[in-house]
Amino acid sequence: MKMQQVSNNCFAVLNEKNRVCDANSGLINRAGGVVIDTQSDLAHARQMIEMFSKVWPAMPRRVINTHEDGDHVWGNQLFEARRSSPTSRCPNG
Description:
The protein is globular and about 30 Å long. 16% of the residues lie in helices and 26% in strands. The chain has helices spanning 42-52, 70-73, and strands spanning 2-7, 10-14, 25-28, 34-36, 62-64, 82-84.
């Protein structure tokens, strides 16, 4: 895993390619903080939190899951933040 700055207030945690669970995560460090996707397991989620703590001093207040596959949501339990799954509100098709 590595963290990469995308813009002034956006960061990405990028996973190795060719893994079974290779989802990436994001942090927007404004307005209380937002994490996008929480990793594939607790170990990766903890590592992501540690990386994000270098650029955001508190736990983010919001979590957005881009969809409900396990490699995007299994770290959710480490966050007390409000969670949102936008795809659950989108019509199929």
